[in-house]
Amino acid sequence: DGGITQSPKYLFRKEGQNVTLSCEQNLNHDAMYWYRQDPGQGLRLIYYSQIVNDFQKGDIAEGYSVSREKKESFPLTVTSAQKNPTAFYLCASRRVPDPGAGELFFGEGSRLTVL
Amino acid sequence: RKEVEQDPGPFNVPEGATVAFNCTYSNSASQSFFWYRQDCRKEPKLLMSVYSSGNEDGRFTAQLNRASQYISLLIRDSKLSDSATYLCVVYAGNNRKLIWGLGTSLAVNP
């Protein structure tokens, strides 16, 4: 079955440690996205990529980094510079890059808790 | 004013009821509109896209009112399985951004 796989589902880390969240898709989609969801806030875009070896900052990119070396993979690193890293992180993909066209498919999410 | 606003609810309705949610948006250049459904602690999933005046899919009807800048979602004959948070999403071509509402929580009770 086609879909998006995120790992790990749950992650606990100490303050000051970098963390990498994995996102893999087998939908052959060009565009991939990372969102963050916090209680009382809508989904906020961290980074997105419309093509391999290219990515763009979203609205809240500070303290995060990404790479897009393969079409299928778009890992997110939460660095120690991120002030409030505890959140629910969602990876998504879309067949076409145009945000106004087509469905966003999401992974099951990674819940990061920084102690 | 927030770019996309939704009544957070919760809406508590009995099975079989009809319930409607509204979502208002501030950018008059908004072009595309979506309703996503999100179950508790799960990922959002697309429920309906609204590209013109409205869209219907079974028990679900979405309508767009451009003059008043809102979209609505109507659920008829509510089922227990409809209990979820419904997220309104708006796309404005002029800034090429998807804006997500905070969601409206629905609880359908037996």
Please, could you describe this protein's structure?
The complex is a heterodimer of chains A (115) and B (110). Chain A is mostly beta strands and 115 residues long. Chain A is 0% helix and 48% strand. Chain A has no helices and 11 strands. In chain A, strands 2, 4, 5, 6, 9, 10 and 11 form a 7-stranded mixed sheet that branches. A 4-stranded antiparallel sheet of chain A has the order 1-3-8-7, with no helix packed on it. In chain A, strand 5 and strand 6 form a beta hairpin. By secondary structure, chain B is mainly β. Chain B is 0% helix and 59% strand. Chain B has strands spanning 4-6, 11-14, 19-25, 30-38, 44-50, 54-57, 60-65, 70-75, 84-92, 97-100, 104-109. In chain B, the strands form 2 sheets. In chain B, strands 2, 4, 5, 9, 10 and 11 form a 6-stranded mixed sheet that branches. Chain B has a 5-stranded antiparallel sheet with strand order 1-3-8-7-6, with no helix packed on it. The relative contact order of chain B is 0.34. The mean pLDDT of chain B is 93.
